[in-house]
Design goal:
- This protein is mainly beta.
- The protein has one domain: Porin.
- A 14-stranded antiparallel barrel has the order 1-2-3-4-5-6-7-8-9-12-13-14-15-16. A two-stranded antiparallel ribbon has the order 10-11.
- A hairpin with a 4-residue loop joins strand 6 and strand 7.
- It is elongated, with a radius of gyration of 25 Å.
């Protein structure tokens, strides 16, 4: 795993400097996250995130484990975050062909969210919005892209230690780029202007339940996600050269005649899938928590798994440990793996992350 990025290290030093605050309540919560995902040997993803949350009435952290403070004392809050992602696609060497360079893509995501808790602290509701600005690699087919997403959510406390939350989310991706037109059994000979508008709608239902058993506290969480969408592909008009059938392949005498292919718009449905997640976290002390989680993707494709959605995994699991060095400073380290099948071949993505949290 690569060293954490400089913004993450700077945030960690700032948190450590301010850890001497002795108040029982906190209003501000700052966090920094650095993670890396490896799909060996093809893809490597590095992510760094800085986030800030302000709780308007302050949060009492004396009711249980420090990691559960905002759950046990829900308050109205606002939050914002900035994330940078860097993906490196490693070229696969093919004998007899020249080596291709790695393709590197970077993107910045800006997010804001808020939650309003009703005075009785039984109901709450909120919204999130995010904007992603990718830096498209020069060697890619896409020349421009824009992604944004918005969601609304509402939840209810069933008693003092159980919540039920419903979330509605929509993600939109617009891309501009080029494609390649091919004549069946002959050749590929035309660059085609192309744009896509992709929309994915997601509905999720989650539950969190906390229990105390003597001096030990534990939580059980679960969620189900239903996601589907559509994509609209617009292909511009282009000129397609027509080769002479009397000439051998590759032999050209003068300009080739061409035909005009008109513009076309195509609507396609995106694969619908369900995601089931369960997790349990044990807190032997107020400062320490250990978590184990499992996630299963249920793809509704009628084709063999992996033919329709290259990025859809089968299942994943995670183990994580949270340790509050003091009541103001917390660290979280997590390891996970996602497993997918692609044309009957197993593929594993390993994920490691480190998060630091400071409160004051």
């Amino acid at each position: 795993m690569h060293p954490p990025p400089r913004p993450f290290l700077f945030l960690l030093m700032c948190i450590g400097t301010g850890s001497s605050a002795g108040a029982a309540d906190y209003a501000w919560e700052l966090s920094g996250l650095a993670s890396q995902a490896d799909l060996d040997p093809q893809l490597e993803t590095d992510l760094s995130t800085v986030a800030a949350t302000y709780h308007f009435a302050g949060v009492d952290d004396a009711k249980g484990p420090f990691a559960l403070a905002s759950f046990l004392d829900p308050e109205t809050h606002m939050a914002a975050s900035i994330a940078r992602e860097r993906q490196t696609l490693h070229a696969i060497a093919v004998p007899g062909l020249p080596a291709f360079p790695d393709v590197v893509t970077e993107s910045d995501t800006y997010s804001v969210n808020g939650r309003y808790v009703l005075p009785a602290k039984k109901w709450y509701a909120g919204a999130r919005y995010s904007q992603n600005d990718p830096d498209i690699a020069v060697s890619g087919l896409f020349t421009d892209a824009e992604m944004h997403g918005a969601s609304v959510f509402a939840g209810r406390y069933l008693g003092a230690a159980t919540t039920l939350e419903l979330t509605l989310d929509r993600a939109v991706t617009d891309t501009q780029g080029t494609g390649i037109a091919c004549v069946v059994n002959l050749y590929c000979a035309a660059i085609v202007p192309q744009s896509t508008h992709q929309t994915r709608d997601t509905v999720s239902l989650g539950v969190v339940h906390m229990r105390r058993f003597r001096s030990v506290t534990y939580t059980l969480t679960g969620s189900i996600v239903d996601s589907s969408g559509q994509v609209v592909i617009h292909t511009g008009s282009f000129q397609l050269p027509v080769p002479s059938p009397l000439l051998p392949p590759g032999v050209v005498l003068g300009p080739l005649p061409s035909v005009t292919v008109p513009a076309r718009t195509t609507e396609l449905g995106l694969d619908r899938f369900l995601v089931y997640s369960v997790a349990g976290e044990l807190f032997p002390t107020r400062k320490l928590g250990v978590k184990i989680g499992y996630t299963h993707w249920d793809d509704s494709n009628s084709l063999p798994h992996g033919y329709n959605d290259f990025n859809s995994p089968d299942y994943g699991y995670e183990v994580a440990a949270t340790w509050f060095v003091s009541r103001n400073v917390g660290l979280r380290f997590a390891l996970g793996r996602q497993h997918a099948h692609f044309f009957e071949e197993g593929r594993d993505t390993d994920v490691a992350s480190l998060q630091a949290t400071g409160r004051f």
